[in-house]
Amino acid sequence: MKNKGEACYVEYGVSGYGVATKLLFQEAIESDKLGDFLKDLMVEIAERCQKAGAKYIGHIKSHLQTSQGTLRADTIGARHGAELHGHIQKPVKTGELVINSIVQGIPEAKVKDCTLSAASEVAKKYNLQIEQVEEHLYFDEYEYLSESDKLDMEAPV
Amino acid sequence: MEIIQIAGFLGCGKTTLLLKISGILSEDYGLRVALVVNEIGSIPVDGKVMEESGMKVKELGGGCICCEIAQSFANTVVILAREFQPDLVLVEPTGVAIPRQVKLVAAMGGRDTQVEVGPAIVLFDSSRPEELMDDELMGILVKTQLRDADVVVISKVDMVDRSRIEECKQMITEAIPKLGKVPFIEVSAIEGTGVNELVDVILKREPSG
After folding, report:
1. Domain that residue B108 falls in
2. Does residue A77 sit within a domain?
3. Cβ separation of B43 and A102 shorter than 8 Å?
4. Which residue of A has its CA nearest to B83?
5. Rounded mean pLDDT of chain A?
């Protein structure tokens, strides 16, 4: 096993930032508008990272979970635009949004700044309120197992 | 239990393809399939998507399975074999992982179990070949990943024309001549192109198409 400083992604100058947020809307919003919001957000994060000096956008991904379905958007760079998948059946007033930004050429702190500032600005443009719930920088000390996972991963082998 | 990795650089379409393939293998062929996802960024996005598919998903964070958390991955292999007994484990490493390292770790986990380490399927994003190959630093990583491929998947072929696909193949085989001997499969996971061909490779069947 390697230490963080020796890990493959460090060697290649790859940095990342992940954030879980809660979205609140003053009025119920339909799928198309939320999809536009996510696509704009992905491209805005990519543009900010590139302006901040990122040589390469690995990927920027998002996942919006609501009571009426989920939407996912991602981009591999501003000039590629953003892809959108999923659908929300009925207009919703709230959702849980997760964003992961992985880029090469700028430090983690800058990736975080670009992600959060873009989220704030694009949310404002769409008249949405965004609240940060949880964050993690790239591969910090954290091991995630899904809640639905029944196996004991700490079991001795 | 066979372990097959769907590898390749960030953003090349690994998750979409993994979901497509795992659905076919479990629904059409009745195989017991487990997914292991090692995601960059500790707030999982891919895992959420996969969970929605109803598959058995193990998510590993806290590092890269090819180096930092190799032991966790090896443990996962053992526990999956012992408690879930899948026919097939499909592994999605991070987009920066080195496929041969992932194979080594899988084999390490398989020492005490009936595990076969299957092919490394490495994706190459046809929508940005120059970006992937020409950058001094990233180009080294992408070529290192491709060098370990037992099968090369030219991904996102719905986004490009035929000449672009051929350019991608040429670019890859010129950079890594030995890949001239491995299968190349053109895939659009979104449209389903080439997916059955890849399933045939995984099942070690004669091509159906």
Report:
1. 2-200
2. yes
3. no
4. A151
5. 84
